[in-house]
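User: Predict the complex.
Assistant: Input components as received:
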Amino acid sequence: MKKLLLIITVALVTIIVPQSLYILDQTEQSVVLRFGEAVDFEDKPGLKYKLPFVDDVIFFDNRILDLNADPKEVISSDQKRLIVDAFAKYKIIDPLKFVQTVKSERMARSKLNSILESSIRQVLGEEQLNVVLQEGKREAVMSKIQSNVNTEALSFGIEVVDVRIMRADLPAKNSQAIFYRMQSEREKEAREFRAEGSEEAQKITAKAERDKLITVANAKRDADIIKGQADAKASNIFAKAYGKDIDFYEFYKSMESYKNSIANNNTNLYLSPNSEFFKYFGNLNQDNR
Amino acid sequence: MLKSLANFTDNPWGDNNSGNGSSGGKSTKGSASNNVLEIEKLLNKYKKNFSGGKGGQTPNSPKSIFSIILIVIALYFSTGFFTIQPEEEGVVLLFGKFSRVTAPGLHYHLPTPFEKLIKVKVTQINSIEIGYRNLGGDRISSRNEESIMLTGDENIVDINFEVQWQIKNAYNFLFKIRDYSAGATVKSAAESVMREVIGKSKIAYVLSDGRANIELEAKTSLQKILDSYESGIEIARLQLLKADPPIEVIDAFRDVQTAKADKEKVINQAEAYRNDILPRARGEAQQLIEEALGYKESVVADATGKADRFEEVYSEYRKAREVTKKRIFLQTMEELLQSSNVTIIDGSLSKTGMVPYLPLTNTQNKK
């Protein structure tokens, strides 16, 4: 009898204890289901109690969870196509509502994904492409998407902590157009550099040639002035000297000129004996000429 | 995603255990089962001793059962010892609830159903490659979907960067955020941040002098985002490895650099030409001036000489005019006639009908 009691006690302990106690992990929150209906939730970790056999417990993560939206093509308000890829960080904040509406995380993710996608389309559809890219605006666009998603997500017990756009790129066809543009811009730039180079070079060359001409011309002018001064001075010196006796100068200069122009030249001279030089040639005392 | 869901239902720790080397739970379970085997061996030994030594006595005597229970309990509690390596931190949970963080060294926690240990490698630097994958050695494969970005002036750049992160707060890292794989949050946030930074920069800034600023700005915003998630992650380093124009247009960009060099070259050549001709021109100018100065000196000297000579002669002439004049005349004529071929023709001869015959060639050639 005593033995039977012991067996019953042991049986009760081994069956009832696991049925009524459970461990709630630090990373989890739990919802208690009574006959399949969510009646209570627990968000503090530790050893928890439930009604044995009657209550069922399901667990959800209480950490920040990640949702990656697949790349989608979106059209901005200026009719530019964008490939947008975003991720969201969310948290289950109301496990009871969560269980009642979406039941599982898997369901929640697929719902959240479509909400996120439509919200991205809607918000980006109202913006222009450069706004999405511009400083500060991207932040604003993202927080707008976040609050849009949040209004719907809260209804199934989820809070979206953050939405971030990862990629916001142009589709391949448009990329090609950008490449062409970039290429032609660079070509323009390169041409400009080369043209600037030859412009500058020509300026330098022309200036140098001009400087050269001016330098030489100035020097020629100065040289001519100097030569002129020299001639003037020489002429002055001659005038001073020769001016003393013009007749003698005439005679002297004639003599010198004869010598210079005729002498040492094998010149043939055909002279008349009547010249002054031959006064005494032929006959002495020829006074009767 | 499915995989993470499966983990979520089976194992509340997700991929953390396998992903981050925090293998506490598994290793404790393993050692516990080892201990069970040892206990069984001991029990068998005990039974043999009893049956062998005391013969008919049953092994179920209260004393022996008590000592078996004692040993079992002792062994059970001994499973709670654990060591934490210098690069790790241990996080202990009591019935799933966070209890304490332990420093490196030998520690004790209550055995399995009560307490649970998670080891976290806190000093380990983890690296994430974005835009490329290092295939080992020098081989790198690029990931265009990650590396091609749009700049603020609607150009496209090719960016590769590396993010290094470590766990700065094990508690937050384990309990505040769930990663479907190690560093996934860091990676998507880093991509998002880099695209944001590049998206508001001009291409010239990205390609040339903006790199350091871009790194700094991206790192700061990335850290801010991770802190807003209370992720317990610290960004140790964010490094731009490549910031190039896309491969499709890189030739055009290189040509711009060549054009810049060409420009310099042409200007330098022009300057060289200038430096060549200007000194020559100055030299030529100086030569002209010097020549003129020389001319001046010589002309004046010549004039002075001639004038002086004249004056000398003149002063002599004044002393005896007629004599000097005659002397000069005769002297000059003498000199003249000495060096010339003189033919004297008497005009009176023509009166007699004689015509002088002058062989011009002969006289010309006579020397």
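Residues 1-32, 51-57, 362-367 of chain B have pLDDT under 50 and may be disordered.
Let me know if you want any component modeled separately.
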